[in-house]
Amino acid sequence: MDTSLEQAVVRFAEPFHSAKDLSTIVEAVGDAKIVMLGEASHGTSDFYTVRAELSRKLIQEKGFTLVAVEGDWPSAQQVNRFIKGFDENGKSAHEIVKSFTRWPTWMWANEEMADFIGWLKEYNNQNGRKTGFYGIDIYSLWESMEEVIHYLTHTNPSGGDLELAKKAFSCFEPFNREPENYAISYASFSTICIEEVSKLLSSIRSNEELYKDDWENDLNLKINALVAKNAEDYYRAMVQSGEVSWNIRDEHMVEAINEIRDYHGRDAKIIIWEHNTHIGDARATDMKNDGMINVGQVLREQNRPEDVFALGFGTYEGTVVASEAWGTPHRIMEVPPARLHSWEEIFHRTGPGSKYVVFNEQNRKAFDQWAGHRAIGVVYHPEFESRGNYVPTRLSKRYDAFIYLEKTKALTPIQVENTVQ
Question: What range does the record give for the signal peptide (predicted)?
Fold first, then answer.
């Protein structure tokens, strides 16, 4: 198997030297309306910079107007308002990325993102506020509830939605912003929290005409209510089943993506930044055996094949920002050479140097074989990598294109005060 895969890389992979080499990938995107850009880790500078450059090209050359990331909606909304000029508070891009206060803050509060956010603001200033920036993750239950209450208090203080929001928020108050406390306690009390957040989302959707304006506050209200409803479901499932909670999270991200697309019109084109494990089709990995789905799979199932394009990333070695345990301080870690017979090692074996391949009818079958594909999360232990961190993958079924970077370096975090987990 390895010999044929090695031959496939030699025959079909192209050298990747600089951003100029992204033009072939932009061309391969064609008329797709959804482009998903992965990463093999959350703490690698090169993945962020390449995604940023590719996003610039897609915005400028292909008319993409939406960027959605694996981050909290309330924090990303501050970025969105910044780049669209809704809040003229004099902040810089470097300051606005500090809006991401939930651990791991460095995932979005970093120098690489500040550069891209600064470019987005400048682009929008020159082109009439065209491109938006949105967070599609599920973790911000309390922050999203606060956003709902704050907005309704100022816009419709006598309305029924505010009372629903207050009831829903009061249901979660006893758990001191600790989702684990809520999840563990769920078995001992009624379904009142489930009912309250469901009523709130339903009412806001029914009354959305009341909240329309020129600053996307109606979308902001709706997504925050959606986060509250789905996060409640996620945290309940978290202590019961990793597979179920994973599916709830990815289904939420798809729902948020579709709400954003519906709001701006289904002809609007969206770029999605997430880890490979979310954007690469789960059906082409061993995740399928555990009953797990992901964003890449569901979006492919919901849309025409030509409307969805997924790009994966990999690296052979380098450095990365990660932590030794959830919620602990980050540090720069060494990424060891890729495991023998993994996709990354096979790309390396064909000769040093970064490469890329766009999968098509001519070469897709050659890459439709199983091999391990490295995945590094926010928690990482390089010394134990040989026992984990590799997802069995059929590369050409998981992605539409793949960029292999020979040696990568850690991103540069920006210090954020008063962080929450």
Answer: none
Number of domains making up the chain: 2
Looking at the whole model, is its pTM more than 0.85?
Answer: yes
Closest CA to 395 of 359, 356, 360, 367: 367
Strand locations in 259-400, DSSP E? Answer: 270-273, 308-323, 330-335, 355-358, 370-374, 390-394
- The structure tokens listed for 264 are 């701006």
Q: With contact defined as beta carbons under 8 Å apart, do 411 and 44 qualify? A: yes
Q: Enumerate residue ranges in the chain where pLDDT < 50.
A: 1, 184, 188-190
Amino acid at 282: A
Residues ≥6 apart with Cβ < 8 Å to 331? 321, 322, 323, 324
In this prediction, residue 340 carries a pLDDT of: 95
Distances (CA, A) of 46 to 49, 111, 318, 389: 5, 12, 10, 19
User: How do residues 210-264 score in pLDDT, each as one tens digit?
Assistant: 888 889 999 999 999 999 999 888 887 876 668 999 999 999 999 999 999 999 9
Range of the domain at 202: 141-264
pLDDT in tens, 344-399: 999 999 998 999 999 999 999 999 999 999 999 999 999 998 778 999 999 999 99
Contacts of 262 (CB under 8 A, 6+ apart): none
Q: Is 319 exposed, middle or buried (0-12, 13-18, 19+ CB in 10 A)?
A: middle
DSSP reduced 3-state for 411 = coil
Task: Round to whole Å and give the CA distance between 387 and 341.
Answer: 14
**Residue from 381, 386, 373, 378 nearest 282 by CA:** 373
Among residues 203, 234, 264, the one where a domain terminates is 264
Place of tokens 């880890």: 275
Strand pairing category for 270-273 and 66-69? parallel
Which segments of 174-298 are extended strands (E)?
A: 270-273
Q: 394, 399, 305, 390: which is closest to 356 by C-alpha? A: 399
**CB burial class (10 A; 0-12, 13-18, 19+) of residue 59?**
buried
Q: Are 215 and 300 members of one domain?
A: no
CATH number, domain with residue 393: 3.40.1660.10
